[in-house]
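pinging the channel bc i need a second pair of eyes. not urgent but kinda urgent?? the chain im working w is below, pasted from the shared doc
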Amino acid sequence: MTTTFATVDDLLDAARARLVRLDPLEAARRVGAGALVVDIRPAWQREADGEIPGSVIVERNHLEWRLHPSSGANLPLATVGQEWIVVCTEGYTSSLAASALVSLGLPASDVVGGIHAWRAAGLPMVAGPTPVEHRVGSTSAAPRSA
């Protein structure tokens, strides 16, 4: 049975009902415990607003393939059990993306308020944009598994 939604807000509510969303400080605490932030924003937004140090850049259209451990196009960081914290600009698209990852059985959540809330919380930021499929602050690509 296919579920349909009357509005985008209904779709967003359903996606968020599947998540344990994180405030920026809790997200930073989880990163300290091994979670990885994945930034799904396009380069122009990352250039305008900055990036989270250590985050992995995977634009939204490749997300599921790059983060699922058994995908033929996955990144080496995409291991079984890896926790992912998805960020976007304000926390809307990240909810939909994190819900898609949860649908694939991956431990995923997102940041309430997105990168704007991260910055407002006084958490570290660096200038962007970092190339796609790189970690922020790294000069080498995150090569895909074969």
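so Residues 69 and 80 are 6 Å apart (CA to CA). and The beta strands are 36-39, 56-57, 84-87, 108-110. — does that match what u expected or am i reading it wrong
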